[in-house]
Amino acid sequence: MIGAQVEKFKAHFLALRKEKVSRAEAWKTQWACYLNKLPLDQYLTDQVILDAIKHKTKEGTASRERFCNKLKKFVEFLDFETKLDLKELSRGYELSPVDEDTLPTDEEILAALDLIDDPEWRTAYRLQAVFGLRNHEIFFLNRSNVQIHEGITVLKVSKEAKTGFHPVAALYPEWFDDPEWNLRTAKLPDIELDLEKTTLADIGREVTMAFRRFKIPFTPYKLRQAWARRAMMFGFTDDAAAEFMGHSVQVHREHYHRLIAMKEGLRIAQASMSNPNRPKPPQR
Question: What pTM does this model have?
Answer without folding.
Answer: 0.65
